[in-house]
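As noted in the main text, all predictions were made from sequence alone. Below is one such record, for PACE efflux transporter.
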Amino acid sequence: MTTLERIFHSVLFEALAITFSVIGLSMFTDHDLKALSGTMIVVATIAMIWNYFFNLTFDYFVKGEKTERSFGTRVSHVLLFEGGLLFFTIPVMAYLLNVNLWDAFIMDIGVTIFITIYAFLFNLIYDHTRVFIVQQRQVSV
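Prediction:
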């Protein structure tokens, strides 16, 4: 992928993640769309920043080729990443939505489960769509 395509992939991923998260939260809570939208934009920003620093630190401690990481290492990576993200986002959600920490935890867990499934499906669909588009362009040329 080119740098431009990576940027497109990231922006599309985050825009859809925020949109779907806001829709989901609005179905299960009494918060208005404006409050949920602002909160999810802040949470997505925290996630992107946390992603950078977490992976930098994880890669420092877990040496070796990334393609050779074991299943256990990959599971540990996801659990540590998501646990750390919850640590940062629960208080932010509680503050921005004016709810207690338990309610923020429940909402954040719901978003985390959704995002995990969404990320898998988004990347699966994106990868297959990308291959289709690249193949169509090659046929046209």
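Residues 10 and 112 are 18 Å apart (CA to CA). The two ends are 19 Å apart (CA to CA). These features were considered when defining construct boundaries for the mutagenesis experiments described in Section 2.9.
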